[in-house]
Amino acid sequence: MKDPLIGLGLESSCDETAAAVVRNGREILSNIISSQVDLHREYYGVVPEIASRAHLETINLIIDRALHEAGVRFGDLDYVAATSRPGLVGSLLIALQSAKVISYAMGIPLVAVNHLEAHLYAPFLEGREPVYPFIGLLVSGGNTVLYHVRGVGDLEVIGRTVDDAAGEAYDKIAKYMNLGYPGGPAIEKLARTAKGRNVVFPKILPEPGDVRFSYSGIKTAVINYLRENPGAEPAEVVFGFQERILELLTRRVFAAARARGTASIVVAGGVAANGRLREMLFEEKRPGEEIIIPSPILCTDNAAMVAGIGYRHVEAGRVDDLAVDVQARA
Ligand code: KG4
């Protein structure tokens, strides 16, 4: 294979429009992210129509900036990768169609990338390479999925949420309590100020051997608690809520790793930015086990991870043709 291989990654599956240039699947030359969070704030969640329109308006500019910052031109690109699944269909289309046009016009391979696999690739862009097979937890506003990652393109789902994603639960409780959007950072900050730590919610899905996640029950429990205790201290309530959300994530990753004798655990997605989650994971970790959490900029949606995993697919000879389509689910 040619060396170096320069790839452009594109991402528009949710509310970030992103483009990045990566060399040899490891070295980030540029990583441009345009967040739409301000457009969705008043709705306390991502509005699909607003998201796809904003991606369409922004993507050309973002691609230009990514190329410019990396000091490359379209003619220098060896492949183009875009997220094709999972996500909002109207949003996914913007990056994938742009990638198809670039692939066709420049005569370079196209790679349609699984967004969740891309998230778990983030550590490889920071020189912290987990050894395959590893346990991968992807925990964001749209997804809570636990994987056994055996190799590139070889992921087995161990368990996933049966209702809300963890980040979604944060966002919904923050909305209910008027704490702002996105809810995760607001709740984490407020929870840190809790002193009594005496509001305790039941453990979620406590049966040993259960591999599922569920976050709608705790949401109802919190809302009921607030209705029954109108004078409750908000910091205490969100502390109790957050402990249960994160305890379940921690319990599931270690159970999966220990059941399989897998030493490496990668945790990615917006919720992985949470400091209390990091604390819990490192408290639970035993000697020989390794927890890898990408830096915050690579934890949330970005296109460097898309270009990165795209490289691995090109390397393995797995490229797509122009007929490839978007999928709401992975
Ligand atoms: O990966 P991400 O940027 O993409 C989407 O899924 O949209 O994740 C965003 C999610 C939101 O639900 C947000 O509330 C949550 O990640 N989040 C956090 C924190 N920072 C972001 N959740 C808990 N603690 C945080 N510090």
Topology:
Layout: E1 6-11, E2 16-23, E3 27-35, H1 37-40, H2 48-70, E4 79-85, H3 89-106, E5 110-114, H4 115-121, E6 134-139, E7 144-151, E8 154-160, H5 166-176, H6 183-191, H7 216-228, H8 234-260, E9 264-268, H9 275-284, E10 290-292, H10 296-299, H11 304-315
Parallel strand pairs: 1-4, 4-5, 6-9, 9-10
Antiparallel strand pairs: 1-2, 2-3, 6-7, 7-8
Bound molecules: 5'-O-[(R)-(carboxyoxy)(hydroxy)phosphoryl]adenosine.
5'-O-[(R)-(carboxyoxy)(hydroxy)phosphoryl]adenosine (KG4) is lined by residues 14-15, 140-142, 167-168, 170-171, 182-185, 188, 269-271, 273-274, 300-301.
Distance between the termini: 29 Å
CATH topology heading of the largest domain: Nucleotidyltransferase, domain 5
Bound ligands, each once: 5'-O-[(R)-(carboxyoxy)(hydroxy)phosphoryl]adenosine
The H-and-E topology, N to C, reads as: EEEHHEHEHEEEHHHHEHEHH
The largest beta-sheet arranges its strands as 3-2-1-4-5
Largest sheet at a glance? Answer: 5 strands, mixed
CATH architecture of the largest domain: 2-Layer Sandwich
Poorly predicted regions: none
Number of helices: 11
State the name of the first-level CATH class of the largest domain: Alpha Beta
Q: How much strand content do the residues show?
A: 15-25%
Number of domains: 2
Structural class: alpha/beta
Number of strands: 10
Mean pLDDT: 96
Choose one word for the global shape.
globular
Global Rg: 20 Å
Helix proportion: 40-55%
